[in-house]
């Protein structure tokens, strides 16, 4: 089983994350930020990566540390569960429609972290979550997971739909990328021989 558990305790957050890349999309998520929990649940369900995520953060200040540190812990757990990345498909992409919104997500589990973000919001908050934190989540996640990640909302009006289509797109692209390719199950998917 490709699993990992990460614990991250700082003066700002106390986080525990467990992932199973070969799961069914089962999740238990508690961060103290309702909309963020909803997005992480979508990420788990549509990637089929089982996720157990708990965060006790300094929400009396704001959500920044909770969102950032959760992203770092989750990305680290996925990287650890992938180990040497042997046999994975490596690349994934998804067009993610949600009503009037369409978001395109493409990623490469390359070991070269990068985020290209072409998504905008017209309101500053969704529920109690600051919309500026979405870009920061994806950036921190990509850095810790070691992936190149491109997210572009092609069009959309509803801010909830825009955020959710990005998370669901990431989920579906991750599902493709972390799956074992039966034609190359014993090979590192790189001509360099390492990722």
UniProtKB/TrEMBL annotation:
This is Imidazoleglycerol-phosphate dehydratase. Pathway: Amino-acid biosynthesis; L-histidine biosynthesis; L-histidine from 5-phospho-alpha-D-ribose 1-diphosphate: step 6/9. Keywords: Amino-acid biosynthesis, Cytoplasm, Histidine biosynthesis, Lyase. HAMAP family: HisB. The keyword Transit peptide does not apply. GO terms for biological process: L-histidine biosynthetic process. Its EC number is 4.2.1.19. Transmembrane segments: none annotated. It comes from the Bacteria. Belongs to the imidazoleglycerol-phosphate dehydratase family. Its main location: cytoplasm. It is found in: Cytoplasm. It catalyses: D-erythro-1-(imidazol-4-yl)glycerol 3-phosphate = 3-(imidazol-4-yl)-2-oxopropyl phosphate + H2O. GO terms for cellular component: cytoplasm. InterPro entries: IGPD_sf (IPR038494), ImidazoleglycerolP_deHydtase (IPR000807), ImidazoleglycerP_deHydtase_CS (IPR020565), Ribosomal_Su5_D2-typ_SF (IPR020568). GO terms for molecular function: imidazoleglycerol-phosphate dehydratase activity. It is an enzyme of class 4 (lyase). PANTHER family: IMIDAZOLEGLYCEROL-PHOSPHATE DEHYDRATASE, IMIDAZOLEGLYCEROL-PHOSPHATE DEHYDRATASE HIS7. CDD domains: IGPD.
């Amino acid at each position: 089983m490709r699993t990992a558990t990460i614990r991250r305790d700082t003066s700002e957050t106390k986080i525990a994350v467990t992932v199973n890349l070969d799961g069914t999309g089962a999740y238990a998520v508690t961060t103290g930020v309702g909309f963020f929990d909803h997005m992480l649940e979508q990420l788990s369900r549509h990637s089929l990566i089982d996720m157990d995520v708990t965060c006790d953060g300094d929400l009396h200040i704001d959500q920044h540390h909770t969102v950032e540190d959760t992203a770092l812990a989750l990305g680290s757990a996925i990287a650890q569960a992938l180990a040497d990345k042997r046999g994975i498909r490596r690349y994934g992409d998804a067009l993610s429609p949600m009503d009037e919104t369409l978001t395109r997500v493409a990623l490469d589990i390359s070991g070269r972290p990068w985020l290209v973000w072409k998504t905008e919001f017209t309101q500053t908050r969704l529920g109690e979550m600051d919309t500026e934190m979405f870009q920061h989540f994806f950036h921190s996640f990509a850095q810790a997971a070691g992936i190149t990640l491109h997210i572009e909302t092609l069009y959309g009006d509803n801010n909830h739909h825009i955020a959710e289509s990005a998370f669901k797109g990431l989920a579906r692209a991750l599902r493709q990328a972390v799956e074992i390719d039966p034609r190359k199950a014993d090979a590192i998917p790189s001509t360099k021989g390492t990722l």
